[in-house]
Amino acid sequence: MEIFEIPPEDRRDFMELLLLADESEAMISRYIGRGRMFVLTVWGEAAAECLVTDEGGGVLEIQSIAVAPEHRRHGYGRALIEFLAEEFAGEYAALTAGTGESPFTTPFYTACGFVYSHRVENFFIENYPRPIVEGGVTLRDKVYYRRELCCARE
Fold first, then answer.
1. CA-to-CA dists, residue 93 to 20, 62, 112, 151, angstroms
2. Cα distances (Å, whole numbers) of residue 97 to 1, 60, 70, 147
3. Cβ distance 52 to 60 under 8 Å?
4. What is the reported pLDDT for 54?
5. Which residue, among 82, 87, 75, 71, has the nearest Cα to 35 in the 3D structure?
6. Chain-centroid distance, C-alpha 107
7. Spans of the chain below 70 pLDDT
8. What is the dihedral of CA 110, 56, 118, 14, to 10 degrees?
9. CA distances from 135 to 26, 70, 105, 140 (A)
10. Is residue 34 within 8 Å of residue 71, measured between CB atoms?
């Protein structure tokens, strides 16, 4: 397993993975060119991706994180989170993630040390052309989770 940073000009090569996290290419276009993107590979194959942006005030936000279906349940999503926490410790105070109230994402973030922060009401209704259903739940509000990052690196 290796994690590589992807330069802006190559990010669209990973659109299949990006679309697993956000089904709207229009929404992806809002953040794909800013921030930093990382891809986790297994035996040379892209298994997971994560794109983060600097939101100011010492906050690094996960805009996209996804694991290919055939690579799920192997800890690759958690590995990306831990990579980010280590990579950006001392540079940022917190890592945040905004997501829908899905039975898949909420337990993932809490298991990775995130706690509830706040919500943006009706985000998915107002920003997507059709309803998004995950795990039998129609997404409405965008729920933010936050993980404090450790002190400066040694």
1. 28, 14, 16, 8
2. 24, 9, 24, 9
3. yes
4. 96
5. 87
6. 14
7. 151-154
8. -50
9. 23, 18, 10, 14
10. no
Provide the residue type at 148 as one letter: E
90 strand-pairing partners? none
pLDDT at 152: 47
Please spell the DSSP secondary structure of the chain, one letter per residue.
Answer: -EEEEE-GGGGGGGHHHHHHH-S-HHHHHHHTTSSEEEEEEETTEEEEEEEEEE-STTEEEEEEEEE-GGGTTSSHHHHHHHHHHHHTBTTBSEEEEEE---TTHHHHHHHTT-EEEEEETTHHHHHSSS--EETTEE--SEEEEEEEPPS---
Give the pLDDT score at 45.
Answer: 94
Calpha distance 53→102 (Å, rounded): 23
pLDDT for position 154: 44
Can you tell me which residue has the tokens 């659109």? Answer: 15
Do 31 and 51 form a contact (C-beta atoms < 8 A)? yes
Structure tokens at 104: 């898949």
Question: Phi and psi dihedrals of 24, rounded to 5?
Answer: -110, 115
